[in-house]
Automatic annotation (TrEMBL):
It comes from Chelonoidis abingdonii (Abingdon island giant tortoise). GO terms for cellular component: centriolar satellite; cytosol; nucleus; plasma membrane. Its cofactor is a divalent metal cation. Belongs to the HARBI1 family. This is Putative nuclease HARBI1. It is found in: Cytoplasm; Nucleus. The keyword Cytoplasm applies. InterPro entries: HARBI1-like (IPR045249), HARBI1_animal (IPR026103), HARBI1_dom (IPR027806). One of its GO terms (molecular function) is hydrolase activity. Keywords: Cytoplasm, Hydrolase, Metal-binding, Nuclease, Nucleus. Pfam families: DDE_Tnp_4. Residues 148-300 form the DDE Tnp4 domain.
Length: 348
């Protein structure tokens, strides 16, 4: 006698006819410790994401038995924090590996749609001053609106002919330009730049450059390392410090700029899909860029919720390639003047 075999349609499970949800996993049935170990976040944080993203993840269709927003979010968090679509992760929430992939895509797009809500520079004068005060409290560097740097995230080769994503180490990657505040919260994140581009080139082409050049953020500057050009709104370290004031400036600059390096380590540690330990992101550059940005949004939401993002051990195998950069600071005489004035006023 033939035994009938049920063939599950992943789209059927995900979207559903009559929009009934598939709830095989209940948050209230497990401990916070289990949720953190499996999905990287505690219950209340996950509930917040359900409220935030629920409308975007509940799109009625003509099919039956949709996967609930709660389950979709758990599936995506499981991928972001583990870096794999392992069967045990899908089993834990009661869905197939293919459905997990679709859940990750849905949650990623929902987070990307809200990126500007959570990643932005402050606008109110009091908030801007607080930003500067927080940076000044780190090492005595005045006027800092943010620290800037680039980091590479490994991706699969788009195709054999496209070398634009091959970085200086010969690996395919995206070069991500980010700015953070003194707490490590991201103020800007551009995650789509090809890995072959040097940091200075990325900044020259970035929206962030246009914003600062247009004077959108005044009365302050970013801090960047020697891979960037000195600008009126971007202070870099002195290449060869000679005086006591120059050494003090460089020391304060380095101590303050280290916040972005620590932030990169923290993001990689929490979101293991970015750290290379489970291999490269197996997506197109565009989709990989969106996954990185989604993790950046979650990083900032984590900080808003008071989660201790500094506590995880540093991991990661994909470090930023070393760049040979010829400094050309003297080309911007006004930027040189501003830095000299900063040295005389605060470090002499």
């Amino acid at each position: 006698m033939a035994v009938p075999i049920a063939i599950l349609d992943c789209d059927l499970l995900l979207y559903g006819r009559g929009h009934r949800t598939l709830d095989r996993f209940k948050l209230e049935d497990v401990t916070d410790e289990y949720l953190v170990s499996m999905y990287g976040f505690p219950r209340q944080f996950i509930y917040y994401l359900v409220d935030l993203l629920g409308a975007s993840l509940s799109r009625p269709t003509q099919r039956s038995r949709a996967i609930s927003p709660e389950t979709q979010i758990l599936a995506a968090l499981g991928f972001y924090t583990s870096g794999s679509f392992q069967t045990r992760m899908g089993d834990a929430v009661g869905i197939s590996q293919a459905s997990m992939s679709r859940c990750v895509a849905n949650v990623t797009e929902a987070l990307v749609e809200r990126a500007s809500q959570f990643i932005h520079f402050p606008e109110e004068e009091a908030s801007v001053q607080s930003l500067k005060d927080d940076f000044y409290g780190l090492a005595g560097m005045p006027g800092v609106l943010g620290v800037i740097d680039c980091t590479h995230v490994a991706i699969k080769a788009p195709n054999a002919e496209d070398l634009s994503y091959v970085n200086r180490k010969g690996l395919h990657s995206l070069n991500c330009l980010m700015v953070c505040d003194a707490r490590g919260a991201l103020l800007s994140a551009e995650t789509h730049w090809p890995g072959s581009l040097q940091d200075c080139t990325v900044l020259q082409q970035a929206a962030l450059n246009s914003q600062f050049e247009a004077g959108l953020y005044k009365d302050g500057w970013l801090l960047g390392d020697s891979s960037f050009f000195l600008r009126t709104w971007l202070m870099t370290p002195l290449h060869i410090p000679e005086t006591t004031a120059e050494y003090r400036y460089n020391m304060a600059h380095s101590a303050t700029h280290s916040v972005i390096e620590q932030t990169f380590r923290t993001i990689r540690s929490r979101f293991r899909c970015l750290d290379g330990s489970k291999g490269t992101l197996q997506y197109s550059p565009e989709k990989s860029s969106h996954i990185i940005l989604a993790c950046c949004v979650l990083h900032n939401i984590s900080l808003e919720h008071g989660l201790d993002v500094w506590s995880s051990p540093a991991t990661g195998q994909m470090e930023q390639p070393e760049e040979e950069y010829e400094q050309m600071e003297s080309l911007d005489s006004e930027a040189c003047r501003i830095r000299r004035e900063l040295l005389l006023t605060h470090f002499s």
